[in-house]
Amino acid sequence: MALFVFNSASKMVSSPFVILHCILICVTLHCNNLAEAQMNPRPNIVLILTDDLDVSIGGMIPLVKTKKLIGDAGITFTNTFVASPLCCPSRASILTGKYPHNHHVVNNTLEGNCSSTAWQKTQEPETFPAFLQKHGIYQTFFAGKYLNEYGNKKSGGVEHVPPGWDHWFALERNSKYYNYTLSVNGRAQRHGQNYSEDYLTDVLANISIDFLENKSNRRPFFMMVSTPAPHSPWTAAPQYENNFPNIKAPRDPNFNVHGKDKHWLIRQAKTPMTNSSVEFLDNAYRKRWRTLLSVDDLVEKVVRKLEVRGELSKTYLIFTSDNGYHTGQFSLPMDKRQLYEFDIRVPLLVRGPNIKPNQTSPLLIANVDLGPTILDIAGYSVNETQMDGMSFLPIMTGKGNSSTWRSDVLVEYEGEGSNISDPACPLLGPGVSECFPDCVCEDSYNNTYACVRTVAQAANLQYCEFDDNEVFVEVYNLTADPFQLSNIAKSIDQEVLEKMNHRLMMLQSCSGQSCRTPGVYDSQFRFDPRLMFSSLVPHRNKRRQTLK
């Protein structure tokens, strides 16, 4: 029997038999996947990702229901860090399980590889949702903010649906609460400013509930909900607009103080801040909390829907953020991007099958671990991927050995600046960005750094090197100095500096398994001084421009 026929123009075309044969193959594969899903039932997974939610300056306080329904019902990790304290690089690390030097997303612009065509071709096919979809067991759902430049017409617009997603409801560009566009499976859906129809956090909650009600009950699901809150413009739902009238940003020891021994970008901040700056950041702090009340409602709706459907007991729920935030620390008005705890530390709460309630873990987690952990929950191994992170599922379920858990992670950031001087702040010169009216700037080209963040029984340490003309180094003992007031780079033992520099170079060139090797404070760490460079030379920023 011929499988192909030729038309009058002598072009080969498929016969009906070929089409039928392909349909039978697809049906067979689908049936096999359904059969496997039913014979070996796997848990459902929900990942709720917030935008700019800190944990160091009180960001979790208004999330009362979230803490009760996820944290108290499972485990709270108190030492969770991001691979980069900026939205797009951090989100890329969550999706790929890779550090920024491996996924190559360095900032929130197309030029920085944020949702660029290069990202779409090289990294999106390797994300953990793409892995799940490829194996056909899980049905996948996404709603909310994806990457900051998603929807840019230069990289496919909202018509582009990344591999890995069966149901796609993604926000065009950056976080908003009203007057935005969603990509609904590749078709634009525009929203206005009617609260009942358009308030984005509530829209995401409603879409999520619709998915839970209408999905297939024959296959497990992975659902990712990515809220705009508490990112600017901090627009609260009407019913929450007047909450927290007296709340102010916390006056911790590092609030409104001069970072005298820190990188020049921190030292340029004006101390004390002006009254108008303090008033502005206090107001922003209140507004951030107000937006989070709708996130709390969303979490409650999802949990209750799972409960009503009888699916809560077989579902893992993960709650976290893409980066932290600061409001007045070291006299920096407000932003993220810095190497300090308030920007790199994020909340991580998980509940699910075999996780005992009311647990707290101090073990060191990185957001590059989320992908490997979700794949592990789904029944797959990180060794089947190119991911840099590791699964913390055994830690959550009590099957892992906490004494042999990793002791350090890598944090990377590539600074951004303008090629021209800000007309309002000419004395600062070119190369700075994110400047406030009083000429305090939150970023610069040479605010490019890499850090080893260590949490071990013998040390709670942060070691950072800047890619600038002086190769500035900052080191903090977080046990003695939790607010990072004193840079001990010049007083710490030289041998520790050399080992940390060596470890930093290793991590900045690591990939996959080599990112999971023992750290300086692991008993298995091996230090060979012959591998040291003649001077401290961090990973170079190819786009850096000479500054102060």
Automatic annotation (TrEMBL):
Its post-translational modification remark reads:
The conversion to 3-oxoalanine (also known as C-formylglycine, FGly), of a serine or cysteine residue in prokaryotes and of a cysteine residue in eukaryotes, is critical for catalytic activity.
Keyword list (alphabetical) reads: Calcium, Glycoprotein, Hydrolase, Lysosome, Metal-binding, Signal
- Enzyme Commission numbers on file: 3.1.6.14
Cofactors (names)? Ca(2+)
Tell me where it mainly resides. other
Entry's Gene Ontology BP terms: glycosaminoglycan metabolic process
Cell location = Lysosome
Sorted alphabetically, which Pfam families does this protein's record hold? Sulfatase
Catalytic activity reads: Hydrolysis of the 6-sulfate groups of the N-acetyl-D-glucosamine 6-sulfate units of heparan sulfate and keratan sulfate
Q: What's one GO-annotated cellular component?
A: lysosome
Leader peptide range in chain numbering: 1-37
Please give the InterPro entries that the UniProt record associates with this protein. Answer: Alkaline_phosphatase_core_sf, GlcNAc_6-SO4ase, Sulfatase_CS, Sulfatase_N
Sulfatase N-terminal domain ranges (all copies): 43-380
Q: Which residues carry this modification: 3-oxoalanine (Cys)?
A: 87
Q: Which PROSITE patterns match?
A: SULFATASE_1
Q: What class of enzyme is it?
A: hydrolase
Extract one GO molecular function annotation from the record: metal ion binding
Family statement: Belongs to the sulfatase family.
Annotated protein name in UniProt = N-acetylglucosamine-6-sulfatase
This protein's encoding gene: gnsa
